[in-house]
Design brief:
Helices cover about 60% and strands about 10% of the residues. The chain is mostly helical.
């Protein structure tokens, strides 16, 4: 049973944060950054399947909300480093907890899906008279 809260949750703030974090890449970028400073190309290589455009947009959104800092260096070729801020580190902690939850429970989720799909097949067969 959930513990009673002293104050009600601020659903507007939660919805606002999640509406801006709805990129499928946000969690991956934050988890890959971890506690490190990384260059754009390192981050893109580590993630592997993210396009340059998607990574740029995700980093820009994270920077805008204060989760990531961007440091550019006047070198040739240009060098840009990204690092989590303090609140980015808090987000990392939450995402690591979610990652741990997923690791512990993924097999159970797959089994629940299998059972659900099996039950739906039986319901559909009965409804069609088979």
């Amino acid at each position: 049973m959930p513990k009673a809260r002293a104050t009600p949750p601020n659903y507007a703030a939660i919805e606002e944060l999640f509406s801006h974090r709805n990129s499928k890449w946000t969690a991956s970028v934050v988890l890959h950054l971890g506690g490190e400073t990384m260059r754009f190309t390192e981050l893109q290589r580590d993630i592997g399947t993210i396009s340059q455009k998607a990574l740029s947009a995700t980093l820009r959104a994270l920077e805008r909300d204060g989760f990531v800092t961007r440091t550019s260096f006047p070198t040739i070729p240009p060098r840009v480093d990204y690092e989590l801020t303090e609140i980015g580190g808090e987000m990392l902690t939450l995402l690591e907890g979610l990652e741990s939850f997923a690791d512990r429970n993924w097999a159970r989720v797959i089994e629940a899906r299998r059972q659900f799909d099996e039950q739906q097949t039986v319901v559909l067969l009965r409804a069609s008279g088979q």
